[in-house]
Amino acid sequence: MKNIVLTGIRTMDMIEAPAPRITAADDVLLRLGVMGVCGSDVHYYETGRIGSQVVRYPFTVGHECAATVEAVGPAVARIKPGDRVAVEPAIACHACDQCLAGRPHTCRHLLFLGCPGQVEGCLAEYLVMPEACCFPLPDTMTLQQAALSEPLAIGLYAVRLAGLSPAARIGILGCGPIGMSVLLCAQSEGIASAGVTDLIPARLDMARAHGADWAVQADDDAATTRLNEHGSGDLDVVFECCGQQDALDQALELLKPGGTLMLVGIPREDRVSFSIDLLRRKELRVQNVRRQCHCVQPALDLIAQGKIPVDALATHHFPFEQTQDAFDLVADYRDGVMKAMIEFQP
């Protein structure tokens, strides 16, 4: 089979590799259909690492995908060859204390697609995953929508973990695919108002078009003034979705006393900082968000019910052979890109 591997900083090659085989009773052999390029994939492409997770070349990234079932192991009961599935990229053991406590996303033995030292990613024509990671699709759902359910599930988990009330006023700092997923999911849950910040005007336009009550360009000289006009210091919850120190600092200013900061974005740095003065005086809560937890099927259900227009996130499309062009586009934030999709089949 063909797969695409990282071979160095901002370099990729297409190679021939042996096709994976079913070895466990619950294995599912998948033929890839669509993959979304995630910001974490681009971190590995640009820097070769995220924190302690360092790429050893060659390495295959990618984890937002949908596929068609080619074959199944003898213990597989829920799906059959020919079914189309969304793929949950986190492979939990289902036996440790975290899994038994309902926290498979912090499994002690968690393996994640496209994560160095764990599992090779899905930038390949074929992939083997456990049945538990494969979610059958209704006939009305496209493979693109199914692949987009992965970032959407993160947004949905963040929103549900925040415990928003109908009266909540929220801010979303960084309106890329995860920030937009938070916005769309928060609206589906029902809230009083939501606003966003970002550096890219096209992303602000998309947020406005999908119901954001305000949208402020983060690097504008007048950004602070505009944020003050929209209730700076009076937000119930701020979702930090870009992993930037400036956004973390801004979040504390935007939150009202007793408010909650949801850390969704992944910083490239090993350490970030907070103003302990503001945290203490406002008695702010800080909550990390680790991927998605039991939210893949709910995200798929929201898409199937037409409650979330997830296709809007897919702004650019590339054939498998042009994967590096897609990564360069996302890395350089060109052409108003929100989400670049890799299509494995013509």
Based on the coordinates given, report the CATH architecture of the largest domain: Alpha-Beta Complex
Shape: globular
CATH class division of the largest domain: Alpha Beta
Q: Tell how many strands the DSSP assignment holds.
A: 19
Please state the oligomeric state of the protein chains shown.
Answer: single chain
Unreliable stretches (pLDDT < 50, length at least 5) are: none
Element-level helix/strand string: EEEHEEEEEHEEEHEHEHEHEHEHEHEHE
Q: Beta-strand level of the residues, as a percent range?
A: 25-35%
Distance between the termini: 16 Å
CATH superfamily of the largest domain: Medium-chain alcohol dehydrogenases, catalytic domain
Largest sheet: 7 strands, mixed
What attributes does this structure have?
single chain; 346 residues; alpha/beta; Quinone Oxidoreductase, Chain A, domain 1; Rossmann fold; 2 domains; 7-stranded mixed β-sheet; 6-stranded parallel β-sheet; 10 helices
Explain this structure.
The mean pLDDT is 95. The chain folds into two domains: 170 residues, Alpha-Beta Complex (Quinone Oxidoreductase, Chain A, domain 1); 137 residues, NAD(P)-binding Rossmann-like Domain (Rossmann fold, 3-Layer(aba) Sandwich), CATH 3.40.50.720. 28% of the residues lie in helices and 28% in strands. The protein is of the alpha/beta class and 346 residues long. Strand 4 and strand 5 form a beta hairpin.
Summarize this structure briefly:
With 346 residues, this protein is an alpha/beta fold. Helices cover 28% and strands 28% of the residues. The protein has two domains: 2-136 and 309-343, Quinone Oxidoreductase, Chain A, domain 1; 152-288, NAD(P)-binding Rossmann-like Domain (Rossmann fold).
